Amino acid sequence: MDEPVLLTGAGGRVGQAILHGIGDDYEWRLLDREPLPAAKVPDRVTDADRYVADITDARAVREAMAGVGAVIHLAGDPRKTAPWDSVLRNNIDGTQVVMRAAADAGVEKFAFASSNHAVGGYETEDRTPDLYRTDDDYRLDGTELPRPGNLYGVSKATGEALGRFYHDQHGMSVVCVRIGNLTKDHPPREYERGQAMWLSHRDCAHLFDRCLQADYGYEIVYGISNNDRRYYSIKRAREALGYDPADNSANYTFEGEPKAGAETNEPETGESETADAVDDAPAEPNFPSDPDTPTDGA
Ligand SMILES: NC(=O)C1=CN([C@@H]2O[C@H](COP(=O)(O)OP(=O)(O)OC[C@H]3O[C@@H](n4cnc5c(N)ncnc54)[C@H](O)[C@@H]3O)[C@@H](O)[C@H]2O)C=CC1
Ligand SMILES: O=C1O[C@H](COP(=O)(O)O)[C@@H](O)[C@H](O)[C@H]1O
């Protein structure tokens, strides 16, 4: 794969998990609408490779895209309660701008941060909470139709469809990663659903590394760790990308503490400035809420 790799939304939680894991392995171009403090930027990235821009600004995105070999596209509104105005602008329009610029620039590989919320509607009343438990064998595997449970999920399903279009019409390799629930050092505490879809930081970095390295056409995969308790299959991620996750939420108690004797090998990342910065990331990031627009089904 040709470098550099453009990482949009580089300053956020997922972006920082990726940079903390594989920040030294690629030549990066980082784009975020917020300026990134030095602690969030790998040493080798020069000022010229840092873009403060909004992804809906087509001219700025085209400039950042020039000469890029691959894209990891994370920028957007990550809130499951996000109103339509925001997901329309940041997640749908923004994703189209980035994908179009990538296709026009001849980018080889494009990894899109989709979400579990693109298929949240499968978590019906009769399936839950059993679905979140080890002895339930129901699995979504990425071949099912999207079934969003909120407007944020609709925007992610739309991003997946845009990816299909840019693959079919322009030949760009596109992988849509339906990310589960990313948390650092331990699975979400006291949250069955979150523990079933946990994605550890190092598995996140490894998964997006595989998105940059593997050969594929168009794929939808689930981005979760190797959790015993899960309702998303990671078979396709293993087969198409060579994903080989290291972590498993079963090695932690319901409260998120490592179980005695279990291999809780998600390394403590507290020593890293970059990781500390991630930990401090706001749970509800920088998006104004708009009471006049619907947030159906949050
Ligand atoms: N954190 C998680 O567990 C999950 C995240 N995702 C997706 O992964 C992506 C990243 O999520 P997080 O890192 O958690 O979110 P975050 O809010 O921590 O990071 C998003 C970053 O994108 C930037 N950004 C937002 N809108 C932008 C725009 N219009 N132009 C330029 N930059 C913009 C923000 O400044 C921020 O640095 C999102 O697309 C989200 O929907 C999907 C599933 C789970
Ligand atoms: O798409 C996303 O999903 C995760 C997990 O969803 P939740 O319903 O369990 O909170 C969420 O944490 C993240 O912010 C969001 O972007």
From TrEMBL:
It catalyses: D-glucose 6-phosphate + NAD(+) = 6-phospho-D-glucono-1,5-lactone + NADH + H(+). Transmembrane segments: none annotated. Residues 245-298 are annotated as: Disordered. InterPro entries: Epimerase_deHydtase, Glc6PDH_archaea, NAD(P)-bd_dom_sf. Its EC number is 1.1.1.388. Pathway: Carbohydrate degradation; pentose phosphate pathway. GO terms for biological process: glucose metabolic process; pentose-phosphate shunt, oxidative branch. NAD(+) binds at residues 90, 115, 152, 156. The keyword Oxidoreductase applies. It comes from the Archaea. Residues 265-282 have a biased composition (Acidic residues). Belongs to the NAD(P)-dependent epimerase/dehydratase family. Catalyzes the NAD-dependent oxidation of glucose 6-phosphate to 6-phosphogluconolactone. Homodimer. This is NAD-dependent glucose-6-phosphate dehydrogenase.
